[in-house]
Amino acid sequence: MVFEVNTSREPIPNLTLLRVTLSPEYTKVDMGYSAIRYYIKGGWIRISPKTHLRIKGSEEKYVLTHADNIPIAPEHHHFKSTRDWQYFSLYFPPIPQEDCIIDLIEAEIPDNNDFNIYRIPLKISESKEILNI
Amino acid sequence: MDISSEAIQKDIRQMKDPAPDGFDAPIKYCRKNKGYYYTDMDYSINGTSLNSHDIDALKEALDVLEGIGGSRVSEKFGYVLEKISTTVQEEFGRKERANKIIQTDSPPPSRGFEHFDILFRACREKVPVSIVHYSYRKRRFKTLTIHPILLKEFDNKWYVVAHSELHNALRTFGLDRIYEPLLLRENYIKADAKEQEIYMNDVYGVYPLSDEPKQVIQVEASPLATNYFQAYPIHKSQKVKVHNHGSSTISFKLVPSMELVRLFMSYGKEIQITKPTWMRHYIENAK
């Protein structure tokens, strides 16, 4: 099942958590990033291998297993300009398929650059079923 | 192999019998050569027979299809075309030409074209799709569910026209801005038939200007612009009234679109928009 989330990071909303897919094998989080003018040529992105999902009310960490279209640190993806963008996906172990609120945490004590997005509600009744090809 | 003359006689009789029992084959016996022959040399017992004119026409059609190329439609089409081309070459001895004699626009593959097959299936089987869309203008990503009705090519770019749940209306999405479409097992929302009709028939290009209905659009065209509009009409509603010195008044019944505005602007001073007034001001301000 897939949840169309569309939640942006605060205070710099250039990172958006777009979709969450729950399957018995994995949890997939689709994200989009638009480069900003602050950095020369848009700067770079990467994802920490410690990035994890946490379900509200639980201490369990679901740690990143792999990523598509974004390098895992210490590798970097360098943008070509301040107008560049990147769509990428992060994979985690499967979380229970039930109503929950999750946090995406790249750093426990984050700064504005970390890919932390909090309080993402996943309501089963609002999910959509993917048609297997 | 041991075949009796009776068996051969029986087979020939069946070949000569009219369809559906036989093959209606034009067979005669030649006393001189003491054998059977087809009186129509183009006759073939294998399915539909092709005469030499049909084969020439098929080869020419293949030239046109190869000119269009698989990359313009889909990878699947490219494979099928290659198979047909090889078969025709083997069956009828078609020679590869050193130089193409038909050339169409064939730009290199574009970003997002890999979604063609999945979106084609969604249109054909009426399946909703979850897409991630990146807006070049707003520089923002968004995920949304669309109910595709049509794949449209305009100006060498591919678009999907679909009912958007987010907008609760028909919208056009460039394939180049779509990421990872997912087919959904959800109810398909049929677009409003009237709205769909307008999108298919009354829009020049792909992005209608919001909230503008189908309307009369009129321009005064110089003799030069008149020649182009007469040679390449842009819509079936186009009417050209040529004046004494070659200039003209050209009218269309269309939903105003971004592409129409761009087309008019590309003519510079060669055309003046007279109707509607808002469009004249819109273009004047955009210059």
Order of helices and strands of chain A: EEEEEEEEEEE
Main sheet of chain B, how many strands, which sense, barrel? 5 strands, antiparallel
Mean of residue pLDDT values of chain A: 94
First and last CA, distance of chain B: 84 Å
The low-pLDDT segments of chain B are: none
Succession of helices and strands of chain B: HEEHHHEEEEEHEHEEHEH
Strand order of the largest sheet of chain B: 6-5-4-3-7
Number of helices of chain B: 8
* Low-confidence segments of chain A: none
Measured by DSSP, the beta-strand proportion of chain A falls in 35-45%
DSSP strand tally of chain B: 11
Structural class of chain A: mainly beta
Describe the oligomeric state of these chains in a short phrase: heterodimer
Which percent bin holds the helix content of chain B? Answer: 25-40%
Separation of termini of chain A?
Answer: 14 Å
Shape of chain A: globular
Strand order of the largest sheet of chain A: 1-2-3-9-7
Helices and strands, with pairings:
The complex is a heterodimer of chains A (133) and B (287).
Chain A: E1 2-8, E2 15-22, E3 27-34, E4 44-45, E5 52-55, E6 61-63, E7 66-68, E8 77-78, E9 85-92, E10 100-105, E11 117-122
Chain B: H1 5-16, E1 27-30, E2 35-38, H2 52-68, H3 75-92, H4 116-125, E3 129-135, E4 140-154, E5 157-164, E6 169-174, E7 178-183, H5 193-201, E8 215-221, H6 223-231, E9 239-242, E10 248-254, H7 258-266, E11 271-275, H8 277-286
Antiparallel strand pairs in B: 1-2, 3-4, 3-7, 4-5, 5-6, 8-10, 8-11, 9-10
Helix pairs in contact in B: 2-3
